[in-house]
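Shipment paperwork, digital attachment
Item: protein structure file
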Amino acid sequence: MENQDFIYLKKQRYDFTIIDNDILRDERVKHARTLLVYWILNFHTDRQGVECKISLEKIAKRARISKTTVIQGVNELVELGFIKKEKRQREQKDFFYNQYTILAKFKNIKT
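Attachment content:
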């Protein structure tokens, strides 16, 4: 999927996680839980720093918040356009999981 409004970040190979400043500056983000969930999702992305497959329970445990609070944070991130959430099905037909895609907005990018 290509969208000219977004670019994908390449995950660094260092032992830290980079959070896009746009989400920190975005006044539409009303809750710290949303920033915390975004950070956890970024921490668990693939090598390209784009996709993440992590359970709500694991996010809650890492963030030290409830599963309900995680769901609220995820929903806000989706609504604001910082992530995309897709329901996926494993080979076992009754087992589903969410795949998250980190979408980073940038303006005036210099190459």
